[in-house]
Design a protein that fits this description.
Radius of gyration: 17 Å
Oligomer: single chain
Number of helices: 6
Order of helices and strands: HHHHHH
Number of strands: 0
Helix content: 55-70%
Structural class: mainly alpha
Distance between the termini: 46 Å
Strand content: under 5%
Amino acid sequence: RLQGRLASLAQALVSLCWTDIHRANAARALTTATEAARLGRETGQARWAIAADIALAVVAGERGEIDHAERLASAADAAISPTGTQAMRAMVRFARGRMNAAHQRYDEAVDVLHLQPCVRDGLHADFGQHPQRRGAFGVPARPELSDAGDRGLPS
């Protein structure tokens, strides 16, 4: 920012917010995605602003703000041009699928993510139920997954 490279900062913040999402750091993901979206728009980088908006949809969905998450995902989907990359569309599907998985709507997550039905069973170990990430996005943990012994894993 001090060097006046706001375009580069927007891109770096988008990368950071997605890293934060995958590391279950909701507070920082929210902060970095919000700033990235603002800077992306300010510097005319629509693609980076959309990527930040999709990250905001992921965070909102995992926090239980389903309507807000869906509005963000829908707006991002609409903003992607008809010739937009499939990667951007996949990010929107990811946001919707992860929101559904976080709230134990596994069949809907499979449908949104276009996953094979055999993957459905694997979703029971989704991010929200992992002991190291429990509660990071306000998703209640399942008591039966409270420690390694409960999952049949060596302690």
